[in-house]
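DM between two lab members

TW: hey, do you still have the UDP-N-acetylmuramoyl-tripeptide--D-alanyl-D-alanine ligase entry open?
JB: yeah, one sec
JB: this one, 459 aa:
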Amino acid sequence: MIQKPLSEIAQMASALNDVSKFADVIVKGVSIDTRKIEAGNLFVPFKGERTDGHNFVADVIQNGGASAALWQKDVPNPPEDLPIIIVEDTTTALQELARSYRNSLDIKVVGITGSNGKTTTKDMTANLLAQKYKVQKTEGNFNNHLGLPLTLLRLREDTEVAVLEMGMSSKGEIEFLTKMGRPDAVIITNIGESHLLDLGSREAIADAKLEIIEGLQENGLIIFHGDEPLLLERLKDYTGNGQLKTFGASKDNDLYPVSIESVENGNKFKTNAGDETFYLPVLGNHNILNALAAMLAAEFLGVPFEKMNAGLASLKLTNMRMEISEGAHGEKIINDAYNASPTSMKAAIDLVANLSGYNRKILVLGDMLELGPLEEEYHYKLGSSIDAGKIDYVFTFGKLSEAITKGAIEVLGDDRAFSFQDKQQLSNELKKYVTGETIVLVKGSRGMALEEVVHALQK
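TW: and the structure you got?
JB:
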């Protein structure tokens, strides 16, 4: 993490005041949350709608372990007897501090974006690169205008490769992030329907994701899903300073699977790049495609394919992404409750539909958020696309998911598809249907908190 005297921090953050009295105070790391202050941290307060972080500055320095704090110029009465850096805007100062620190580091960077699979691909890429380098990656979903700066400021000076996830909700955000991170390689996992509410069309989403190229360093690598026409169309005439490589299911890609074998809790697969058989301890063919993207990035940075099996086989994904556990009745539970979109939801349902070894398959599905004016149609189409011969029961939670149930009833009947607005009621009813030979998929957008259903099944 960043570790510098306050005099340097003040210069990097464009201080407006004289900090010479506290010039030798050492800053170790940065925090924006008073509950997570660690010894020596620089505390960055923000003016919120309900609370103002500036109200806690004196306390976190005097009693909370922080060594210093930023202070926004338009907030009155900055404490004069404490190590305070006055700045025009605390958010901008945090970002400038991160940009300056990143520019001081001798590291390689892989930037990752896409509608689905960003975090999974990030975890895979970091694991593969760790076979050769000291690697750090974005923690959790710290992938926005605040999260990415905090991730950069947590990088150690001896880190050799940083794997940075870049998220967005509107046009221009990824361009801002990628110019801060300055990646040597970028991955665009896919183009889905997430953020239709903000951007209006998949075409606009594709344009926004492609902003990640704007920060690519000289002779960098652009890795993208070659089965996606929206990306192919936009990159066919690319004349920038990077090279292009594609991954996907079709043989038109630079890297594609030539065989896939389902095994317990994962898949074995081979690629067109050689005879090596890779084991991926994660369910779903879509995750094999994520692995291919990660493999191209690792190869670009010097990790040979023959060394990648160890990185894939030891993979542990961020929580609530295809996380397998067991319920109280011995049922297997796939907890994929971190997020959801029509594309990722369909992939997860297809995965469960095609699994063998279970005599009952149950879907627990929640609302998919931020889909715009056609959100009800997306939910209904998802429900009506469920294969009645491969899925036994559907339980949904949320107002939007009532449309999933309506669609599912058309193919399964009303005795196999049920809608709930109360998670406890859903969980109580669900328990009546599970046995030791049941598999349950739990998936919905983050705001639906469907992991509560998982926890209920485990009791």
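TW: got it. The radius of gyration is 24 Å. Residues 81 and 357 are 68 Å apart (CA to CA).
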